[in-house]
Amino acid sequence: MTDPRATVVVITHNRRPELLRTLRRLAELPERPRVIVTDNGSTDGTAEAVARHHPDVRLLRPGRNLGAVGRNLAVREVRTPYVAFCDDDSWWSPGSVAGAADLLDRHPALGSVTARIIVEPDGTEDPIVRELRDSPLPGPSWLPGPALGSFLAAATVLRTDAFRTAGGFHPRLWLGGEEELLAADLAADGWWLTYADHLTIHHQASTTRDPTLRRRHGIRNTLWFTWLRRPAGPALRRTLNLARTVPRDTASLLAFAEAAAALPWVLRERRVLPHEVESRLRLLEPAQRTSTARRYTG
User: Fold this and answer.
1) By CB count within 10 A, which of 44, 45, 136, 166 is most buried?
2) What is the per-residue pLDDT across 218-259, written as a single tens digit (0 to 9) for each?
3) H helices of the chain, where?
4) What confidence tens digit (pLDDT) does each residue in 169-220 have?
C-alpha cells in the first residue's frame, strides 16, 4: 500500500547513472512514496532519462544549479505532512520512511528524524553515526532517540510545515554544511531533532563530486552560520578553532575570504539564537573539536 504521509525529495546535477539507481531503489519501497526530483541544470541528459524511465516522478527543471535551494523548490510541491530528503547517490531502506513518519505521528513536538547511514558498497556504518548515536545533548523524556543539534539532509525526514516556517535552506549557502543553519532555526521555533538507530539510508558516494570545492563551501558556511546565529564569544571561539585546524591551503584561504566578504549581509541578517538553543550548541563544541568524521578534507 502507498503510505500517504511522506514525499521523497531528491536534488541532482549531472549524475544520471546514480540518480537512476536511486529512483529504482525508491520505486521498490513498500511505502511507494511520491518522489520529486529537482534537476539542478544537468547537461548529461538527466532530465530526459528521468522522464523516460520514471514518468511517475515529479520532475522540476529550474534551468540552473540551485544547490540546496533545489530542495526548497521541491518542498513547495509537497502535499504530505512529512518530507524525506535523500541525495542522488543515496536511497532509503524499505520501511524506514514509514518508520520515521510513525515517530513524527507519535510525537507532535518532533521536527526531524535522522536515520543510520550505511556506506556502500561495503555495507559499513558512516563514521558520523557514532556521533549521532552518542549525542551529548539532553532531551525531553518523550524523545524517542538522542537529541541532535543538527541533521544530515540526505538521511532525514522532516515535518513539512516546520521546514517551510523555518524558511528552508538559506539561498546563499548553496551546498556544504547547509543543514546547520536550518537545524538551529528549527530548534529556535521549538522543534526537537532526533536520531533513530532502527531506520536506515544507504549512501554510495558519487565519484563525480569535487571534494575541494565542497570543503571550501563547508568552511565558509560554518563561518556564516556561526556569525549569523551564535553570540560573539562562542562565534569568535569557533572561528579561531577553525583557523587553527583547517588545512593550510588555497581552498581554506578562499573560504575565509568569502566568509569575510559577506560581512555586510551577515550582520544585516544576524539573529542570535534563544539561550536554550545556544546552550545546546555549546554542549556540542567538545565533540566538534575532537570529531574524526567532520574533518575538512579533500
Assistant:
1) 166
2) 999 999 999 999 999 999 999 999 999 999 999 999 999 999
3) 16-27, 46-53, 69-75, 96-106, 128-133, 160-166, 179-188, 211-229, 232-245, 250-261, 263-269, 275-290
4) 999 999 999 999 999 999 999 999 999 999 999 999 988 888 899 999 999 9
Q: Are 31 and 102 in contact (CB under 8 A)?
A: no
What is the grid cell recorded at 112?
Answer: 526531524
Which CATH code, of 3.90.550.10, 3.10.310.10, 3.40.710.10, 3.30.1490.20, is assigned to 6-203?
3.90.550.10
Cell numbers for 224:
556564516
C-beta of residue 197 within 8 angstroms of C-beta of residue 133: yes
Task: Output the nine-digit C-alpha cell for 183.
Answer: 537545524
Q: Which of 154, 220, 158, 217 is nearest to 187 (CA)?
A: 158
